[in-house]
Amino acid sequence: MKQASDFPSLKVITHPLVQHKLTLMRDKTTQPILFRQLLKEIAMLIGYEVTRDLPLASQPIETPLAPMNAPVLAQPVTIVSILRAGLGMADGLRELIPSAREGHIGLYRNPETKQPHDYFLKLPADMGCAILVDPMLATGGSAARAAQILLDHGLTPASIRLVTLVSAPEGMQVFAQAHPDIPVYTASLDERLDERAYIVPGLGDAGDRIFGTL
Ligand code: PRP
Ligand code: URA
Q: How far apart are CA 207 and CA 51, in angstroms?
């Protein structure tokens, strides 16, 4: 099975705090209230890495002592959640980037076909840099479809980045094949998919664990 080094567009965030919190999330006894809190905290930590190369512009300001040209973000940032589970990651990124705009792409995976089905779409007009969030990259169908929707709305691959929590090698393969120039950030490339296309070892159904719909 493929490893992280087989995917040039993949960056695994190995920070000890991210890994520790992910272990707590994987534990099946972790309840939704803690699961949501941990997801938010991990999203903030990953967000630091994801936003590292955002372009800066210079803006004239006056400090109490002197005028200066100071750095500011050069373009808007838009957090795009894949519903439902992406909302749990958006909570953390919103705290990190309070000025961010937000978009929502409603997709659910048909349990029989495993194919994504669209049911909602609302995106800001000027997205700038889009951070697409969904904790689970399983078959890769949902993330690949959501990225295509952003491209169809005029974004370039360079202005999109995908952030997941747990990824399957199978899903990463599908996503990288469809969108080789979109960087992917994840906390873990897990072992494989099971026969229901759930990630193993994974953490179960992220949406159900966030919203308590088990
Ligand atoms: C989950 C998850 C991803 C998708 C991943 O959502 O949040 O969106 O499955 O699977 P894929 O990579 O095989 O497409 P789900 O469809 O269960 O919807 P939910 O978030 O509303 O529970
Ligand atoms: N969706 C999830 O929430 N978890 C998986 O393991 C696969 C798809």
A: 25
